[in-house]
Amino acid sequence: MSDEGQRLPVTTDQDVVRVRQAVRTFSVAVKLSLVDQTKLVTAASELARNTLVYGGGGEVVVTRVQNERRAGIKIVFADEGPGIVDLTLALTDGYTTGGGLGLGLSGARRLVDEFEIDTEPGKGTTITITKWCR
Amino acid sequence: MPLSSDEASRFADLLKEHAESLTARWVELAGASLRGRLSSAELRRQLDDLRKGFEQAMRSGSAHLTDEGSAELRAQLAEISGHRARQGFSATETAVSIFALKDAVLEALGNGDDAGTLRDYVAFSAFVDRAALFTFDSYVQVRESLIADQAEQLLELSTPVVKLWDGVVAVPLVGTLDSARAQVVMERLLQTLVDTGSPYAIIDITGVPAVDTQVAQHVLKTVVAARLMGADCIISGIRPQIAQTIVALGIEFGDIATKASLADALRYVLNKTNRSLNTKRTER
């Protein structure tokens, strides 16, 4: 595992599992607490599945980051799918277009420390999340 | 000390000249360490191919195994180690097969006791050493890919439904719960409920590493389906970190009973049905 990060394609269900495993490995390496590990892995699982199901597949990049005080993990989920038309609606608990629980996107936001979403209809979606060690 | 080009060509001649006896001796030496797990005809075929590979590499004047002229030899070595790795031979056994060539060649060199022969032999020996190390590397690579395949198969392990107590069945979920597996789990559970006439089912998620919305949805659907059939479901194996994650995600299990451990869940069901593991308590 290198500090430059790990790039993983997301085109099948198996890839979502691989993303989870990679995120867990990184989480252990930066010594996130068990609860934070689980939260980050779960958030990554949600967003990777969104990339696959709604974005039509894409790419995930897991990187170790460091600021003045603490270490953390940054994960970028990028797809070139249809994008999100109404972001506010998409971030509403319980709203879904795919028959899920409608908690993946909104729930993932609550599971991490930083959550950034960049989307444009027809251009795709890029979501960046960061979790810091306490 | 790398092989000089005339050393290499001398060895190429040697490998060609003594082809018969060399291969025979090599098969004998390598076969001893394989303890008959590979038929000697197959071993002979492999090693004779390898001998030709070495001969060719020497003929092209390769001083190193990484040289262009050794490409063929490298491919042969990789193929043999891949073969051996899959058949369950150890890395040492594979490498020893290659090292055995040195002994065979030494015997073929005869009793030339001058310094030149010795120098030749040392250089050739170093070349064989690198070849053996190369098989080590390829062996490890093949084994790693085998392990990766097995890890993927593990993900697909089926989930049994077990009868835990009279009227109580349990589903220990282990690993990743994707849609296909969730479907299998649900079908098995519902069928077992009918077959055993059990009014209680415990779904244990201790072995599920990450409970995300998809896993939760599958579990919830299974619970609802079981309820439609008149069975009560209890979800057990909710560890502290999973509980906190579920809360943050905003998943609600509603009025479904959840317990930290399978034992708690069983105790809960037995209490509910006024039964106990301890007969004294039942009398109370």
Give the overall silhouette of chain B: rod-shaped
Assess the beta-strand content of chain A as a share of residues: 25-35%
Strand composition percent of chain B: 5-15%
**CATH superfamily name of chain A?**
Histidine kinase-like ATPase, C-terminal domain
- Write the CATH fold name of chain A: Heat Shock Protein 90
How is this fold's topology laid out?
The complex is a heterodimer of chains A (134) and B (284).
Chain A: E1 6-10, H1 13-29, H2 34-53, E2 58-66, E3 71-79, H3 87-90, H4 104-111, E4 114-120, E5 124-132
Antiparallel strand pairs in A: 1-2, 2-3, 3-5, 4-5
Helix pairs in contact in A: 1-2, 2-4
Chain B: H1 5-17, H2 19-34, H3 40-59, H4 71-87, H5 91-109, H6 115-155, E1 162-165, E2 168-174, H7 179-196, E3 200-207, H8 213-228, E4 232-236, H9 240-249, E5 257-258, H10 262-272, H11 279-283
Parallel strand pairs in B: 2-3, 3-4, 4-5
Antiparallel strand pairs in B: 1-2
Key features?
heterodimer, A: 134 residues, globular, B: 284 residues, alpha/beta, 2 domains, five-stranded mixed beta sheet, 11 helices, 5 strands, rod-shaped, HATPase_C_sf (chain A)
Molecular structure report:
- The complex is a heterodimer of chains A (134) and B (284).
- Chain A has helices spanning 13-29, 34-53, 87-90, 104-111; strands at 6-10, 58-66, 71-79, 114-120, 124-132.
- With 134 residues, chain A is an alpha+beta fold.
- Chain A has one domain: 2-Layer Sandwich (Heat Shock Protein 90), CATH 3.30.565.
- In chain A, strands 1-2-3-5-4 form a five-stranded antiparallel sheet, covered by helices on one side.
- In chain A, a hairpin with a 4-residue loop joins strand 2 and strand 3 (71-79).
- In chain A, helix 1 packs antiparallel against helix 2 (34-53) and helix 2 packs antiparallel against helix 4 (104-111).
- The longest helix of chain A has 20 residues, at 34-53.
- Chain A is globular, with a radius of gyration of 14 Å.
- Helix content of chain B is 65%, strand content 9%.
- A five-stranded mixed sheet of chain B has the order 1-2-3-4-5, sandwiched between helices.
- In chain B, helix 3 runs antiparallel to helix 4 (71-87).
- The model of chain B has no long low-confidence stretch (mean pLDDT 84).
- Chain A binds chain B through residues 13-14, 17, 20, 24, 34-35, 37-39, 41-42, 45-46, 49, 93, 100-101, 103-104, 106-108, 110-111, and chain B through 152, 155, 176, 178-179, 209-214, 216-217, 240-242, 244-245, 248-251.
